[in-house]
Design goal:
The structure is a single chain. The protein is 29% helix and 29% strand. With 182 residues, it is an alpha+beta fold.
Length: 182
């Protein structure tokens, strides 16, 4: 079990690259989901936003419905992040367990980590929005059977990254918010 404490150093699997900015969506070997936001020297207000603001979601999906780029936005703030997740980057021997875990848990731990110090600035736990969770799971199930998926997914993401995040957010499909009841 990983111990996370606000105001203390993040444990090893969450160590940031120095100066990193952005978000990382990760499933640990235990099946637990983490959404890690790296921000250089987050202000008190930014830490409060991450802890308390509604987290809205949207997504873009390719024509084959196997590739998804998700977005989160903290309501009433400029904080918006892209979530890129390729399940095939994990070892193939783990895929069955990981797919089973996708059906068992939609809970995510959200961490804000200061990328200059590695200190945990905020922790929050919530369930993923139902619509986004369903879209993700369906695409991930398909992805593990596609040859050379990682390369194809990376190329697709690279084409999206030619646009600004806010433009992508504006054309993405709304998909609920973290912590919604269903």
């Amino acid at each position: 079990m990983i111990q996370l404490i606000v105001g203390q150093q993040a444990p090893e699997p969450f160590w940031p690259l120095p100066g990193a900015e952005g978000a990382r969506f990760e499933q640990l070997y235990t099946g637990d989901w983490f959404l890690i936001i790296y921000m250089g020297q987050p202000s008190k207000e930014e830490r409060k936003i991450v802890r308390k603001a509604k987290i809205l979601t949207r997504y873009l999906i390719d024509e084959s419905k196997t590739m998804v780029m998700a977005f989160i936005r903290f309501e009433a703030s400029p904080l918006i992040y892209e979530l890129v997740f390729d399940p095939t980057r994990y070892k193939a021997i783990e895929w069955k367990d990981r797919i089973d875990w996708w059906d068992k848990s939609n809970t995510v731990s959200l961490l804000l980590i200061d990328s200059t110090t590695g200190i945990v600035g905020a922790i929050r736990v919530a369930n993923m929005p139902k619509t986004l969770w369903e879209v993700w799971r369906e695409s991930w199930r398909k992805s593990v059977s596609i040859e050379d998926y990682s390369r194809k997914y990376t190329e697709w993401i690279q084409t999206l990254w030619q646009q600004k995040t806010m433009k992508l957010w504006n054309i993405a499909i709304p998909s609920g918010r973290f912590g919604e009841k269903y």
